[in-house]
Amino acid sequence: MDEGTEQAFESGPGAGAPSGTQATPGTQAASEAARARRVAARRASERILSGGAPVHTVGERLAQLAAEAAGLPGLDTRVDIYGDGIVAELERRVAELLGTEAAAFFPTGTMAQQVALRCWAGRTGNSTVALHPLAHPEQWERDAFSLVSGLRVVHPTRDPRPPTAEEVRGLEEPFGALSLELPLRDAGFLLPTWEELQETVEAAREREAVVHFDGARLWECPSHFGVGLPEIAALADSVYVSFYKSLGGISGAALAGPETLVEEARAWRHRYGGNVFQQWPAALAALSGLERELPRLPSYVAHAKVVARALEDAFRSAGVPWFRLNPPVPHTHQFQVWLPYPAEALDEASVSYAEETGTTVFGVWTPSPVPGVSFTEVTVDASALGWTAADVRDAAAGVLRRIRADG
User: In the UniProt record, does the keyword Transcription regulation occur (predicted)?
Assistant: First the structure.
């Protein structure tokens, strides 16, 4: 889930209005009504295949946080003040998990990455950042890199996949930093192979650039790469990780790397307004996520492959004229599903199926640039582990039947 782009359990990139657009009062009311219906259907569902943003009430989330925190150490210490106490413990834990010298807590990933790359620009003397045009800073941050932090962006490639070593070597102008989003969410949660990642990092080093990992979802990457988190983080000069993506936290992020960089980042965090008086609820939820969800992520990644194969079987058996799972074999526990139907028809079929059966299969559907083709993102987490391949096929077929009945 991305800051400012997702409401309720809308897990697709099109869930929020694009930057700079304004909905009319009528369309806004209709959108809010549709969202309320989706949330109600999801809350009433006894079975959920694809996870998404939380739909708890405030009271439910408070109770959940209290229950999850019961087994965590440090509850008898005072609440944090400007990042000491439990926030400092979270920072220590992240540095330990990633094998870095230090880590700093940030209220948002947008701030953490701007600060990291601003620091590197000062150290390298080059404010140009090489990154993919589908990366989060380009898609979802309202040009903050340039407008707030004075950074300039160049693109190694425009193809919807991670950049290659050859493309990094072939950039026509110098750049101070290469930022790699792992996985590249808007391209389908794609990852390079471990060897490809190593080669791309080496290509940046040959260009005398530092390497930053946009690792909002780094937590689930070890299964694909076949190495641990410290080995992945060791390739980069700095790493950003999120606490609410994958880990189910409330909010927040961390920037990890050398002690000197992290100390400088803390100063810029203060200047950017990120030195919040008390952040213990977010830190506590993050520690809980590291304790509870991080060990489960490999099982989610493995089961995502089962779910993807079952969905493919369901679409083929139903005679869907064209479909795409992107990637065909998921690299993480998330992937895209593309179908040749309007988003409105898919939303109605998905919600009506949930209302009638108590089973939620898909989240919100997003129109693609091709008329009549839409996509959604599937997130396989704890709620999906009990689903067999047959369960997935039957439920997907039920949604498809409703599309054709309405058509």
Answer: no
Question: Each residue of 201-218: pLDDT tens digit?
Answer: 999 999 999 999 999 999
CA–CA dist 154, 137 (Å, integer)? 12
Assign 366 to helix, strand or coil: strand
Q: Please state, in angstroms and rounded to a whole number, the distance separating the CA atoms of residues 323 and 63.
A: 41
Mean pLDDT of 171-177: 97
- Sequence-distant (6+) residues with CB within 8 A of 58 are none
Pairing state between β 359-360 and 47-48:
parallel
Q: Where are the domains of the chain?
A: 13-55+295-406, 77-292
The whole-angstrom separation of Cα 114 and Cα 161 is 23
| Residue 39 contacts residue 52 (beta carbons within 8 Å) | no
CA distance 129 to 212: 10
Q: How far apart are CA 52 and CA 29, in angstroms?
A: 22
Architecture of the structural domain at 77-292: 3-Layer(aba) Sandwich (3.40)
Peptide bond into 183 cis (omega under 30): yes
Cα 190 to chain centroid distance, Å, stands at 12
pLDDT of 308 > 80? The answer is yes
Q: How far apart are CA 273 and CA 270, in angstroms?
A: 5
Which CATH number does 13-55+295-406 carry? 3.90.1150.10
The pLDDT value recorded for residue 15 is: 38
- Cβ 173 vs Cβ 154: under 8 Å: yes
User: Would you tell me how many other CB atoms lie within 10 Å of the CB of residue 58?
Assistant: 7
CA angle 116, 206, 262 (to 5 degrees): 20
Angle at 170 between CA 200 and CA 126, to 5 degrees: 80
The pLDDT tens digits for 354-404 are 999 999 999 999 999 999 999 999 999 999 999 999 999 999 999 999 997
Instruction: State how beta strands 128-130 and 334-339 pair.
Output: unpaired
pLDDT tens track for 102-152 = 999 999 999 999 999 999 999 999 999 999 999 999 999 999 999 999 999
Q: What distance lies between CA 192 and its chain's CA centroid?
A: 17
Q: How far apart are CA 55 and CA 78, in angstroms?
A: 30
